[in-house]
Amino acid sequence: QVYVWIYDPVHFKTFAMGLVLVIAVIAATLFPLWPAEMRVGVYYLSVGAGCFVASILLLAVARCILFLIIWLITGGRHHFWFLPNLTADVGFIDSFRPLYTHEYKGPKADLKKEEKSESKKQQKYDSEEKSDSEKKEEEDGKTEATRNSGTDGSGGERHSDTDSDRREDDRSQHSSGNGNDFEMITKEELEQQTDEGDCEEEEEEDTESGPAHGKS
C-alpha cells in the first residue's frame, strides 16, 4: 500500500464538553469583570457548597460519637449506626440509605448463634447419616448384583457342562457306530482280497503248468 487513510472523528459530546470547559476557565479568569449581581450569586453558591461539605463531615463525626455513647451505655450489646453508608464507597443517594441499622449482640444472640450452630451440626450429621445409609444401600445392591451374576454364571456353567456332556455322548455314539461300520468294511475287503489272491494263484499255476506240458 502506498498510503493509508485513517478516519477517527471526535464525538460531538466530547467536543461540547471540551468547549464548555474552556469557556468556564475563561469566565473564571474574567471574574472581576462580572456584574455585581452575578458575583454575589456565585459567592452565595460557594458558601452553600462549603456548608454542605462541612455538615457531611460533622455528621460523620456525630454518628461515631452516638455509636460510642450507645455502645458504652449498653455494655457493647447494642450496635446502633446512624446513616451507616455515609462514608461507604457508594453513590450520593445511597450514602443516605438506610437511615439507621441496629444489632443486638448479647447473651440471647449468643444463644441463638449456638442454637443455629447446633442445628447446622445436626443437619450435617443427618446428611452424613443419610449419605452413609445411601452408601450401604449401594453396597448391598452391588453385592446382590454380584450374587445374581454369580448364580447366573453357575447356571451358565451348568448349562455348558450339560451341553458338553451331551456332545461327548453324541460323539461317543457316532464313534461307536463308525467303528462297527469300519470293522464290517474291513472284513468284506479282506474276503474280497483273499478271493482275488486265490484266483491269481490259480492263474499262475495254470500258466506254469502250460509251458511245462509244452516242453514235455
TrEMBL record:
<keyword id="KW-0256">Endoplasmic reticulum</keyword>
<feature type="compositionally biased region" description="Acidic residues">
    <location>
        <begin position="191"/>
        <end position="208"/>
    </location>
</feature>
<comment type="similarity">
    <text>Belongs to the SEC62 family.</text>
</comment>
<keyword id="KW-1133">Transmembrane helix</keyword>
<keyword id="KW-0811">Translocation</keyword>
<keyword id="KW-0472">Membrane</keyword>
<feature type="transmembrane region" description="Helical">
    <location>
        <begin position="40"/>
        <end position="73"/>
    </location>
</feature>
<dbReference type="Pfam" id="PF03839">
    <property type="entry name" value="Sec62"/>
</dbReference>
<keyword id="KW-0813">Transport</keyword>
<protein>
    <recommendedName>
        <fullName>Translocation protein SEC62</fullName>
    </recommendedName>
</protein>
<feature type="region of interest" description="Disordered">
    <location>
        <begin position="107"/>
        <end position="216"/>
    </location>
</feature>
<dbReference type="GO" id="GO:0031204">
    <property type="term" value="P:post-translational protein targeting to membrane, translocation"/>
</dbReference>
<dbReference type="InterPro" id="IPR004728">
    <property type="entry name" value="Sec62"/>
</dbReference>
<feature type="compositionally biased region" description="Basic and acidic residues">
    <location>
        <begin position="107"/>
        <end position="145"/>
    </location>
</feature>
<feature type="compositionally biased region" description="Basic and acidic residues">
    <location>
        <begin position="155"/>
        <end position="173"/>
    </location>
</feature>
<keyword id="KW-0653">Protein transport</keyword>
<keyword id="KW-0812">Transmembrane</keyword>
<feature type="transmembrane region" description="Helical">
    <location>
        <begin position="12"/>
        <end position="34"/>
    </location>
</feature>
<dbReference type="GO" id="GO:0005789">
    <property type="term" value="C:endoplasmic reticulum membrane"/>
</dbReference>
